[in-house]
Amino acid sequence: MSRTDRSALQAQYKDREIIGGVYAIRNTLTNRLLVDTTADLRGMKNRFAFALRTGSGLHLKLQKDWDAQKGEGFAFEVLEELVKSEGSTPAAFQEELDLLMEMWDEKLSGQDRY
Question: pLDDT digit string (tens) for 1-19?
Fold first, then answer.
């Protein structure tokens, strides 16, 4: 790969649209939810898919159920997406995600959660 190609790929990566948000991992057998935020929804979806394929753990809070069910019966759900605005700092973006998380905590207050 030439230096020009490499520079173009790096610039393309830096200029990509960053989409974070609130997601849930649902245990479809018990209907319990793990709800969290991420600054990179695409990456979290990939991580979940990798955990399913390899049988590896995903999150300590649901590890006991994950091990008992061998990773089966879990589903990844995007609850809300948030596009990082141009010029927004990572800290400011995380603050926005934290506010979204508070709203979802209220919406899901009666739900059985990890």
Answer: 788 877 777 777 677 789 9
CA distance linking residue 79 with residue 100, whole number of Å: 10
Asked whether residue 91 is assigned to any structural domain, the reply reads yes
pTM of the predicted model, to two decimals? 0.85
* pLDDT for the residue numbered 16: 75
DSSP strands (E only) in the chain? 19-27, 33-38, 74-83
Q: Which of 20, 38, 34 is nearest to 76 (CA)?
A: 34
> Are 76 and 57 a contacting pair, CB within 8 Å?
no
Instruction: Please give the pLDDT value at position 83.
Output: 97
Q: What angle do CA 111, 80, 75 make, to 5 degrees?
A: 60
Is 38 in contact with 104 (CB distance < 8 Å)? no
Amino acid 43: pLDDT: 96
Q: Do the beta carbons of residue 18 and residue 83 sit within 8 Å?
A: yes
Q: Does a structural domain hold residue 42?
A: yes
Domain range enclosing 28: 16-107
